[in-house]
Write a structure and sequence with these properties.
- By secondary structure, the protein is an alpha/beta fold.
- It has two domains: about 350 residues, Alkaline Phosphatase, subunit A (3-Layer(aba) Sandwich); about 90 residues, Arylsulfatase, C-terminal domain (2-Layer Sandwich).
- Helix content is about 30%, strand content about 15%.
- The chain has 13 helices and 16 strands.
- The strands form four sheets. Strands 2-11-10-1-9-5-6 form a seven-stranded mixed sheet, sandwiched between helices. It has a five-stranded mixed sheet with strand order 4-13-14-15-16, with helices on one face.
Length: about 475
């Protein structure tokens, strides 16, 4: 909750990781990665336990997810060509949409980008007036990546790229620190977008961090399986071929150890950025937001990648700390990660652009607990045309259609967080199954008709009214 009105407009530091599972923080190096910097941010502010992505048609889920964060719209509605697959065209953010960077720039902020930008360069230059160590591709080796300098004229061709020696997380942190150290006292507030490529594969952490994790002591996820029980439509995509079939416990432990080490390393590098904020005198007046573009399976349900709709892949970590955000218990509401945009606008008294469709969750941060609106609404997500899901209260339904065959999974998340007990064929749960399926199909018929995803308000409101207690 806000403890006092903001009298000096705060800076904003928005950090987006790549492939960071929501449950991979605050670990002990066996049950999860050690993340002391993120833990301190969460203790200082608010952790959003129900933050989720909306999915998209692109197997590179980070493309629609990052476009959504930038525009405050559902992933496919943020992209110019939402159904294009894995090419430069599919990265384009719609030109008629106002990005978060452009909004802050037009409201007196110096906007600066560091790290991964997996969308088009025109939207990058609409959003930012400067940048350092910019990565324009989807993935690469972490060592000595090929990066770009910010170009005011938008020149980001092959000829302008250059290799930067070092490790990706350290290089991106260097860019953020350099920006903070070169700022002059009394300069306009800044909006700094810092995007890591960690912990995305290749899972090659610096050796110092790799040695902190004993693969044999890594705890397997409770929903570990050697293989997925049925064809979900993407069992052979690149991400799933990073380990042998069937999955072995030893291999999943080894890859998870390296995954945790990557997270601990970028957590440490984030600590250097926060130290630079403190040294500059800007720390107390900077809103810090941490999230990820999506989660990752890492052995859960026999999967490795993010091309699925289980909680481990659609939930993301989200932490807010800084002026206006008081310490409080984690917020459990289902919140789209792309709601960050309108929420920041509300917190900083910046008009929300008309093209933003996500709703601000500022009330959850600012209102006393007894006055918060906590009644859940259906939360829809999809992956391509083959998987779609709805979360409502503690229930979750996933529908698959692969090769003309339809499968349903119904989970009671309050009793089955790992989504291992499929209740779809249990006669005692047929009423909620059909209710959720009807809502999902109504939403999807609208989605499929226009080729994009948008929230069908009539579906949500009617379903909510019928099920209100």
């Amino acid at each position: 909750m806000v403890t006092s009105p903001v009298t000096i407009r705060p800076n904003v530091l928005l950090i987006v990781a790549d492939d960071h599972r929501a449950d991979c923080i605050a670990g002990n190096r066996e049950s999860g990665p050690a993340t002391p910097v993120l833990d301190a941010l969460a203790n200082r502010g608010t952790l959003i336990n129900g933050a989720r992505i909306g999915g998209g048609h692109n197997p590179a889920v980070c493309v629609p997810s990052r476009a959504a964060i930038m525009t405050g719209r559902a992933p496919d509605r943020a992209l110019k060509h939402p159904r294009s697959q894995c090419n430069s065209e599919n990265q384009e953010i719609r030109e008629d949409l106002t990005t978060i960077g452009k909004t802050f720039r037009e409201n007196g902020y110096i906007t600066h980008v560091v790290g991964k930008w997996h969308n088009d360069t025109k939207s990058l230059n609409r959003s930012f007036v400067g940048g350092t160590n910019i990565f324009l591709d989807g993935m690469s080796e972490h060592e000595n990546p090929l990066l770009h300098d910010y170009s005011p004229k938008g020149n980001y061709g092959v000829e302008t790229a250059h290799v930067v020696p070092g490790f990706s997380s350290q290089i991106f942190a260097d860019g953020a620190v350099d920006f903070l150290q070169k700022r002059e006292q009394g300069e306009s507030p800044f909006f700094l977008y810092l995007a890591f490529t960690s912990p995305h594969d290749p899972r090659t952490p610096p050796e110092e961090y790799r040695q902190r994790y004993d693969a044999k002591r890594i705890e397997l996820p409770q929903n570990f399986l050697p293989e997925h029980p049925f064809d979900n439509g993407e069992l052979l995509i690149r991400d799933e071929q990073l380990a042998s079939f069937p999955r072995t416990e030893d291999e999943v432990q080894r890859q998870t150890a390296d995954y945790y080490a990557l997270i601990e390393h970028h957590d440490n590098e984030l600590g250097r950025v926060i130290s630079a904020l403190k040294e500059s005198g800007e720390y107390e007046n900077t809103l810090i937001i941490y999230t990820s573009d999506h989660g990752l399976a890492m052995g859960s349900h026999g999967l490795l990648g993010k091309q699925n709709l289980y909680e481990h892949s659609i939930k993301v970590p989200m932490i807010l700390a800084g002026p206006g955000v008081d310490q409080q218990d984690p917020i459990k509401n289902d919140i789209p990660s792309y709601s960050i945009f309108p929420t920041l606008c509300d917190m900083l008294d910046i008009p929300i652009p008309a093209t933003v469709e996500a709703e601000s969750f500022v009330d959850l941060l600012t209102k006393p607990r007894e006055h918060r609106v906590t009644e859940p609404t259906p939360y829809f997500s999809h992956y391509r045309d083959i998987q779609r899901a709805v979360n409502w209260k503690h229930w979750k339904l996933i529908r698959y259609e692969v090769g003309g065959e339809v499968r349903l999974q119904l989970f009671n998340l309050s009793e089955d967080e790992g989504e291992m007990q499929n209740l779809a064929n249990d006669h005692t749960h047929q009423a909620i199954l059909h209710e959720l399926l009807e809502a999902l199909e109504t939403w999807w018929s609208h989605t499929a008709r226009i080729g994009m995803v948008e929230r069908d308000e009539s579906t949500v409101s009617s379903f909510q009214a019928e099920k209100a207690e």
